[in-house]
Specification:
alpha/beta; binds BIS(adenosine)-5'-tetraphosphate; 9 helices; five-stranded parallel sheet; single chain
């Protein structure tokens, strides 16, 4: 009884904070510009950036058990198991109740992750406002990732076979995430080729329309 009262007292104000959020998913294959555009979008709109790739790489850098387990998947170009990334995102949401909204970058990457995210947001009385899907040809993706591999020090960017595996994982498991959100009319496609600024302007245009709607 007392435990329930405490829950109601503490959870209600937090739920109200989450209600006013503007949450978006920046979606696309590896190398489509999600990380690049996220940096600019969070600066403009003041959103909290949640990149599962960055979170995983920071676990690897810290040599945590989670990071060591994740590295074995990432080095092969495979997705890290759903439960690991869902738990990371769940904690990140709980730790940022004051955010104006979240920009999800590289998450969700499977339908199971999308369903879990929807549930987590519903529990907090909020939802995904829009999914912006960057469209880039396969040849351009490979070119960009190999190019980044020259300087990034990322083991998953240096080997063309691993890059191929990442794109295959995307086609097999991640592309379906767009279908999931299409059911709710939330997906907008944006051309991901051209200069970084042109693509940024196109993304901002869609976000501004959505915010005004
Ligand atoms: P991520 O860190 O998400 O990496 P990514 O998809 O490769 O990169 P991103 O798409 O952000 O890169 P960007 O285009 O900005 O994932 C890495 C790995 O982590 C995955 O393979 C997986 O193993 C694991 N993982 C992450 N999230 C997971 C999840 N939810 N579930 C399971 N596993 C998960 O940049 C690419 C390059 O293109 C850069 O060099 C950039 O400068 C360049 N570029 C960007 N825009 C450009 C433009 N307009 N023109 C030319 N070049 C451009």
């Amino acid at each position: 009884m007392l435990k329930n009262l405490i829950r109601v007292y503490y959870i209600c104000p937090l739920t109200r904070l989450f209600e006013d959020m503007f949450n978006l998913i920046l979606f696309g294959p590896p190398g489509s510009g999600k990380g690049t555009q996220s940096e600019k979008l969070i600066a403009k709109y003041g959103l909290k950036h949640l990149s599962t790739g960055d979170l995983l790489r920071s676990e690897i850098a810290g040599q945590t058990p989670l990071g060591l387990a994740a590295k074995s998947f990432m080095d092969k170009g495979q997705l890290v198991p759903d439960e690991v990334v869902i738990e990371m995102i769940s904690s990140a949401l709980d730790n940022n109740p004051q955010a104006k909204g979240f920009l999800f970058d590289g998450f969700p990457r499977t339908t199971a992750q999308a369903e879990s995210l929807d549930k987590l947001l519903t529990q907090k009385n909020t939802e995904i406002a829009v999914v912006l899907a960057l469209q880039v040809t396969k040849a351009e993706l490979v070119k960009r990732l190999l190019n980044r591999g020259l300087t990034s020090g990322r083991s998953d960017d240096t080997n063309e076979e691993v890059i191929g595996a990442r794109i295959e994982e995307y086609e097999k498991k991640t592309a379906a995430v767009a279908d999931h959100y299409k059911k709710y009319g939330k997906v907008l496609f944006v051309k991901g080729e051209g200069t970084v600024d042109t693509i940024f302007d196109a993304l901002c245009h869609e976000i501004d329309l959505k915010k005004r709607a």
